[in-house]
Amino acid sequence: MEKSFILEAEKIKLLKKKDSVLKNYMDRVGTIERWYEDDFFSALLESMISQLVSTKTADTIYQRLLRKVKKLTPENLLNSSNEEIRSCGISLKKVQNMKVLAQDIVDQKLNLEELKKASNGEIIEVLTKYSGIGLWTVEMLLIFTLQREDVISYGDFGIRGGIQKLYGIEKLTKKQFNEIKEKVSPYGSLASLYYWHAQRML
Questions:
Q1: What is the third-level CATH fold of 40-144?
Q2: Using H for helix, E for strand and C for coil, what is the string for 131-196?
């Protein structure tokens, strides 16, 4: 999928006012741009592929799938046999989960365009009913596909690790996490980029 970037200069200034510790780190590392992918269905499939495999492996598998079906649409996915999709390196269980999602879209049981307009909570409730789509997956979609501004995933190891390193917390509790989440709101998605960065670099 082609990635575009969100210009967030003003939000960066506002986030810095929320938290002095985060501000100091942001000043040190400079601007981190947030990219997004606007094809909701493709992003869903890519997220399902990514579960339990490395980023590099997931990207390889995803590129194979793109070459196989040419364009990732529900119809093209359903018109491809399970064996064709499995040959890309995708388990049968994942193939079945992806096809259930695609079939519901074709049958108009799931309207992704309408879902885009729903609240974060509603989107999480709808999508996590599908096997192969968990809370973390939807939270990443909220950040990187739907461009929601205030998402920080407690289930993301990188974010929790970054918070621990940045604030000098040995073991992050859910209460501490929620306090930090509240502090950086409504710019949680932007803050997440810096927590990921801190986890890798500190």
A1: Endonuclease III; domain 1 (1.10.340)
A2: CCCCHHHHHHHHHHCCCCCCCCCCCCHHHHHHHHHHHCCCCCCHHHHHHHHHHHCCCHHHHHHHHH
Tens-digit pLDDT profile for residues 114-157: 999 999 999 999 999 999 999 999 999 999 999 999 999 999 99
Q: Quick check: bond before 74 cis, omega within 30?
A: no
Which pTM does this prediction carry? 0.89
Contact criterion met (CB below 8 Å) for 199 and 165: yes
CATH 1.10.1670.40 describes domain 4-36+150-201? yes
Give the count of alpha carbons within 13 A of 152, CB side only: 26
pLDDT for 200 beyond 90: yes
**Cα–Cα distance measured from residue 143 to residue 145, given in angstroms and rounded to the nearest whole number:** 6
Domain definitions of the chain by residue range: 4-36+150-201, 40-144
pLDDT above 60 for 13: yes
Cβ atoms of 24 and 54 closer than 8 Å = no
> Which amino acid is present at 117?
K
Q: Please, are residues 24 and 197 in contact by the beta-carbon 8 Å criterion?
A: no
